[in-house]
Amino acid sequence: MEANITREQALALLREYNEEPFHIQHALTVEGVLRWYARELGCGADEEFWALAGLLHDIDFERWPEEHCRKAPELLEKGGCSPELIHAVCSHGYGICCDVEPVHEMEKVLFAADELTGLIGAAARMRPSKSVQDMELSSLKKKFKDKKFAAGCSRDVIRTGAERLGWELDTLLERDHRGHALLRGGHSAGDGPAGPGMSRPDRTQPPTVTERVSAAPAGADLCVVFCGRDLDRFSRRRARRERSLSGRTSVKTGRPIGAACFCAQPGCGSFTSR
Known about the structure:
Elements: H1 7-17, H2 21-40, H3 47-56, H4 72-78, H5 83-90, H6 105-125, H7 137-145, H8 155-165, H9 169-181, H10 209-215, H11 222-226, H12 233-245
Helix pairs in contact: 1-3, 2-3, 2-6, 2-9, 3-5, 4-5, 6-8, 6-9, 6-10
């Protein structure tokens, strides 16, 4: 399996089209998980290819969310990636946003692990340690069954991913949980190569706005999510509208709409540029 691109070139390519820390962090985490899976499933000789597919899988999502996995081939080809890597990257959107079917085992793992990685990350961020390492598998299974938790992570996609691999759902949950926990400290990657033994990010940094919104139960008021402060009736309506808009693209600027807080209290720190 040839990628025709180095890890350093792939990271630079990712950063060319992505600025939001949450998207970079997610890409690095999926890279580490795919690298772990390659070793776990006896495909260590191709682990770099597996990892690069994980790193670049959402390359087009931040700027072109409505063209996800359809804009990617253009960006990846421009970056010098092989047709094999382009197919692998796009296949994780099969049946969701594109018609590139996952055929290789690596592609099926990426399809299954990508969505599950979002759920595991959201569950970890709700813990005091912000880590998967001290999170029990039973806790992850409860979060999976709770449809209101991280509602944006499709349980149907995760189930379909397990079926494509020929695994029981519990097997996928156990393996993905174990792979995340083996990333040093159970945290997502920094700028270094992702995978076991990578450097740990600064724990003093608070979660980003996107991370907090992603981890919030469906329908939660923004300021309750951010700082625990309740809102007056007017601000509550604004906050709910703001949450419904979060993640959409601004017609005026062409950039994703951020989420903002309305309690105007010191320490909430939940504003983003519009």
